[in-house]
Structures are given as structure tokens and as C-alpha cells.
Amino acid sequence: MLSTRLVRCTLIGALIILAAGLTASAQTAREDEQFGPVVRAYLGYLRNEQEVVDDRASRHEVNAAYYRRNSNRIRALRQMAIHIARESQNDYLPELEAVAGDELGLLFERPPRFQTLRVGEVVQTTFRYLGVVRSGDLFYVFARLDPYEQAELMQKINHVPDHASGTTVSNPIPGSRITSRARRVSTP
User: Fold this and answer.
1) Beta strand pairing status for 137-144 and 95-100?
2) Measuring CA to CA, which residue among 169, 108, 109 is closest to residue 140?
3) Is this prediction's pTM over 0.70?
4) How far apart are CA 96 and CA 143, in angstroms?
5) What is the helix (H) or strand (E) element at residue 82, kind and residue range?
6) How many Cβ atoms are within 10 Å of 125's Cβ, its own excluded?
7) E strand map for 36-179
8) What is the pLDDT of residue 157?
9) What are phi and psi of 105, to 5 degrees?
10) 107-158, pLDDT tens digit by residue?
11) Which residues are CB-neighbours of 6 under 8 A, at least 6 positions away?
């Protein structure tokens, strides 16, 4: 009698948890419908990445700190992707990277001091700093520049116009920060 009640309660609890999970994923899917196919695909990719992290944690392949940091990183990337998509109202996302303060060395040979980063700033002609997202941890989010933007910045760095003389001089500081950005033009 007691074991039958225990089994029944366990089944009811499992069904409630399953229903809550399905409701949450259905709500996320509905939220994603407001975006174009590129943004939806990226958000789907992030959901798949979370499933991989969840699976590895369930198999005890990773420790709790790894699981927590990567789940928070995925959440931070999702928040930034949604922010970019809503702000630009464009079905385009750059390649995004989210790193904690102690991980800046993973992206940069000479990591910048995060205290000096400004939103929109290009760092080492490779990444544009998009801002910080607090998702459990504090993540610094960067967009990788496409090869055309990188080439344009390298050209600007190597040939800086000298406005006083009207000539072009080489940039004396290779790898210096450039803060201007070429705007993308959307064609209808």
C-alpha cells in the first residue's frame, strides 16, 4: 500500500516536471518565432549546446563549476543575440563570444583590461566589444569581425592620413585600438 502511493507520487512528480519543461521550451520556441531564420537557427544552436552541457553533467563528465559557468555563458550569448536582433531588426548575427574576466586570454594574445573596454570598441582588429552581460557570472561579449571589416581596419591602421600635411603615414603603433566602425547597409 505504501509502496503504491510512493510510486504514484513519484510518477505525478515526474509528470509535473516534464510538463513544466515542455511548457518552458514551448514558450522559448514561441519567443523565437518573432525572429528570422538566421537568428532562430542561432538560438536553436544555443539550445543544442545547453543540451550537450546538460547531458555531460548528467553523465558526471564535468564538475558543477564547469556546468554552471557554461550554462551561464550560453544564457549570456542568448541574451545578447536577442538584444542585437531586436535592436537591429535585422536577421543577422555576428559570431559571438562570451568570456568571463579570467578568460580574456582565451580570445586575445595580449588581453585588454576589462575596466577600459568601451562598447563598440574594436580590440586588436579581431573583435568588437558589445558589452557585459550578468548571467550568474559576469561575461564580456564580443563579436568577431568578418574578414572584410578586419581588412578595412588593417588598411586604416597601416595608412593613417596626416591631416596637417595632407599625406598618408604608416601607423606607428601596430595592433592599436580603432574605435570607428563601418555601418552595414541593409538592402530591401
Assistant:
1) antiparallel
2) 108
3) no
4) 5
5) helix 64-88
6) 19
7) 95-100, 122-123, 127-135, 137-144, 160-162, 167-169
8) 79
9) -65, -15
10) 999 898 888 899 999 998 899 999 999 998 999 999 999 888 888 888 887 8
11) none
